Automatic annotation (TrEMBL):
It comes from the Bacteria. Its cofactor is pyridoxal 5'-phosphate. Residues 86-340 form the Tryptophan synthase beta chain-like PALP domain. This is Threonine synthase. Belongs to the threonine synthase family. Residues 2-80 form the Threonine synthase N-terminal domain.
Length: 469
């Protein structure tokens, strides 16, 4: 399988190459040069497979040439044999039309584990093959950070520097990162938003002072391997509800557009998906882009869904590329203008292409809290606020007829409620307890470094610690 950059001028790479590259050298994101497709009969044959077998089958076309069948099968068995639920991502029915896909049974209690546990194994395999070391730099609004740290802590050949916005992640999220004691893990709290942290990370990949000194790696969803592993649970859930004979719709709480883009990939691979609902909080750049073509970033408003307090959604670029005719040069120009002005309009082709599958619905804080209360009152489920944004959108879509009554709507439950106990308790009157598998989070010492919001502060920290390692 060959991978090309959305901005058209970076070298074409194989799967091993894109996994280790993260961001393309032209600033773009890598995508397969063409989408692999499963026939209806092939999709039907996937029914009833355990998660790890399904994962290997869905991912196989993407890794061709870089992993043997045996290597991939063994990796999937190792990664998905160790989740907190035998089904890995269990599907829970709420009522006749609504379902929750629980993606939080990994070690750090958010959907990020599903892909990052896999990425940890991929890094180890590919780096050992090349006898290379790698410095991972990542940005997190709360969940990617802990999942990535868990996946690579104490592994040979990698170090990780994780940037989070100071004071803008929950206590549980912060402690899941800062209480990990491993010589290869560094946490930075920056004065700024997640968008600032993400911009710093992307800058490092294009800064010759950094790339000349270090082999950088990415754990954010700019790394194609992240999205590839997330495609699997769309197949897994749709098959349980009747695919390929019956279509399902998904509501996906969205920030960086990675999780919902994985749904788009599943559709491009042949999975019959009725609609992908992009559920946003009040940081609603995607809602505006998908509703009237206005992709302009304002300031970030802190909410009870901090992981989605994002105004520049990295992976939207992948959609614009694919829907807009895969013209790398034109997209490079469009994204360059966006980076300078923080505003752009979608072209007609991009807007029409996106509207064929995507609809966006926005939830404010009250609507989010009401969705939590509804889930608890009507179904006895305690859900996290990010899932609440998705559930609000699902209920609106069902009630307004946007999704017909006979089409199941699956809301992606992206985090465990105990990661956000204050917001959950306010909404439903019950304080969710942390599962035992996360251990004594509040009894452990925290370690992190506070830095300013300047790019140079982050870059110098990375260069200094790489030199000391
Ligand atoms: C709990 C939770 N829900 C939803 C999202 C949004 O996912 P994405 O950034 O892939 O759109 C995130 C962050 O990525 C998250 O941590
Ligand atoms: N919500 C995310 C933000 C980073 O997203 P990613 O999927 O690109 O890693 C987080 O929890 O850090």
């Amino acid at each position: 399988m060959e991978y090309i950059s959305t901005r058209g001028s970076a070298p074409t790479l194989d799967f091993e190459g894109v996994t280790l590259a993260g961001l393309a050298t032209d600033g773009g994101l890598y995508l397969p040069s063409e989408w692999p497709r499963f026939s209806e009969a092939e999709i039907r044959d996937l029914r009833g497979k355990p998660y790890h077998e399904l994962a290997a089958t869905v991912m196989r076309p993407f890794v061709k040439g870089s992993l043997t069948d045996d290597e991939l099968d063994a990796m999937c068995a190792a990664v998905y044999g160790d989740f907190g639920h035998a089904a890995v991502t269990p599907l829970v029915q709420l009522n006749e039309q609504h379902w929750l896909l629980e993606l939080f049974h990994g070690p750090t209690l958010a959907f990020k584990d599903v892909a990052l546990q896999m990425l940890g194994h991929l890094f180890e395999t590919f780096l050992a093959r090349r006898e290379q070391r790698m410095m991972i730099v990542g940005a997190t609004s709360g969940d990617t950070g802990s999942a990535a740290i868990n996946a690579v802590a104490n592994r040979d050949n990698v170090e990780i520097v994780m940037l989070h916005p100071k004071g803008r992640v929950s206590d549980v999220q912060r402690r899941q990162m800062t209480t990990v004691r491993a010589a290869n893990v560094y946490n930075l709290a920056i004065d700024g938003s997640f968008d600032d942290a993400q911009a710093h990370v992307k800058c490092m990949f294009r800064d010759p002072n950094v790339t000349g000194a270090l082999k950088l790696g990415a754990v954010n969803s700019i790394n194609w391997a992240r999205l590839m592993a997330q495609v699997v649970y769309y197949f897994y859930s749709a098959l349980q509800l009747g695919a390929p004979e019956r279509k399902v719709a998904y509501s996906v709480p969205t920030g960086n557009f990675g999780d919902v883009f994985a749904g788009y990939v599943a559709a491009r691979m042949g999975l019959p998906i009725e609609r992908l609902i992009v559920a946003t909080n009040v940081n609603d750049i995607l809602y505006r882009a998908l509703s009237d073509g206005d992709y302009s970033a304002g300031g970030v408003t802190p909410t009870i869904t901090p992981s989605m307090d994002i105004q520049v959604s990295s992976n939207f670029e992948r959609l614009l590329f694919d829907c807009g005719g895969r013209d790398g040069a034109a997209l490079a120009e469009q994204m360059g203008a966006f980076e300078a002005s923080k505003a752009m309009r979608l072209t007609n082709a991009q807007a029409q292409g996106a509207s064929a599958l995507f609809t966006s619905i926005r939830a404010d804080q009250d609507e989010t809290a009401q969705a939590l209360a509804w889930a608890y009152r009507e179904t006895s489920q305690i859900i996290d606020p990010h899932t609440g944004v998705g559930l609000h959108a699902s209920i609106v879509a069902g009630d307004t007829g946007l999704i017909a009554k006979d089409v199941p709507i699956i809301t992606l439950a992206t985090a465990h409620p105990a990661k956000f106990p204050d917001a959950v308790e306010r909404a439903v009157g019950v304080r969710p307890a942390l599962p035992q598998r996360v251990g004594d989070l509040f009894g452990r010492e925290e370690h992190f470094t506070e830095i300013s919001g300047d790019y140079e502060a982050a870059r110098n920290f990375v260069l200094q610690n790489a030199a000391d390692a």
